[in-house]
Amino acid sequence: MDRPSQRTLQQRLADGVVVGAEGYVFELERRGYIKAGPFVPEVILDEPDALRQLHREFLRAGSDVMVALTYYAHRDKLKAVGRGDDLEELNREAVRIANEIAAEGGALVAGNICNTWSYDPAEPERSGAVVRAQYEEQLGWAAEEGVDFVIAETNDYVGEALIGLEVCQELGLPAMVTFASVQPSTTYDGYEYVEACRRLADAGAALVGLNCSRGPATMLPLLAAIRAAVDIPVAAQPVPYRTTHETPAFEALEADGRHLFPLELEPHLCTRFEMADFARQAEAIGVNYIGICCGGAPHHVRAMAEALGRETPASRYSPDIALHPVLGIAGIESQVMGGWSTGAA
Question: Which residues are CB-contacts of 93 (< 8 A; sequence separation ≥ 6)?
């Protein structure tokens, strides 16, 4: 199949920031369509209209890219939940649905691969062959169904990321390669995050950067260092959670001695205003692809797109608190005159 979009990723990047939106798995789990734990996107075949709706909401909120929901849709993961026989159909249908909704708003379509949990740096050839076979399956089907580029994300190992990039190149697909940053300073195979991105840039990635794990506060310093180190576009898709210098990755957030990841993260959730501020700061340091990852929702995406100067279809319903009968200006003045603000009964 031909490339879905009339304009390429490179053309859109030349025009300015590309807005991305992910977090499909977390959001669909919250809505009751994906099981936490395995996080396998069975929704693609079981409840495809739920996936269509979320794609459409991200599109209306301002995302320039519809990402095929093939994260964790590789052979080992499907086998673990007894859906190994559905592997090809699930992957193909995910791309078809992404194409269907992308056509409603002229969005790009991205194929998607991720960390496989199969790579072992102690046995790079043996484990690398397993990883390559999984990527070749997924991306082969994606290429046949039609994608504009591939997002190869949440990489923990440079070795695994390079395999994903090589498969993309063999298929003639531009690749955006991003690393998770779970550890304070290095990938699991020992590369500083800046060096990891530099290596993938030198190997021919179209974009490099970070996704998942870190919230805005702890991702921004790394992004600035990456931007200074590479000559290609940089991508950033943080999680919308308040991570700190002491706890840079959301997987390590705790309360009362227990880990909050993945089901008790709400107390640390960023507001739409915090994510809008991240988008502005990321643009200011030269990030070219700005999106959101696990935990992200359409209201975050709309706020980020508007912060970047976009008017989206969903902007028709952006907040106008001045019209609220109590919180609006007229309402507050009325309540003050009536004694509400002074605590009068």
Answer: 44, 45, 48
Residues making up the chain, counted from first to last: 345
Query: Which one, of 67, 51, 154, lies nearest residue 108 by Cα?
Result: 67
CATH of the domain at 19: 3.20.20.330
Count up the domains in the chain and report the number: 1
The verdict on residue 17 lying in a domain is yes
Q: Is residue 332 one of the residues assigned to a domain?
A: no
First to last CA, the chain: 69
Tens digit of each residue's pLDDT, the chain (345 residues): 567 888 999 999 999 999 999 999 999 999 999 999 999 999 999 999 999 999 999 999 999 999 999 999 988 889 989 999 999 999 999 999 999 999 999 999 999 999 999 999 999 999 999 999 999 999 999 999 999 999 999 999 999 999 999 999 999 999 999 999 999 999 999 999 999 999 999 999 999 999 999 999 999 999 999 999 999 999 999 999 999 999 999 999 999 999 999 999 999 999 999 999 999 999 999 999 999 999 999 999 999 999 999 999 999 999 999 999 888 865 555 444 444 333 333
In a domain, 33, yes or no: yes
- pTM for this model (two decimals): 0.93
**Contact in structure between 180 and 211 (CB atoms under 8 Å):** yes
Domain assignment of residue 68, yes or no: yes
Give me the domain span that covers residue 272: 9-311
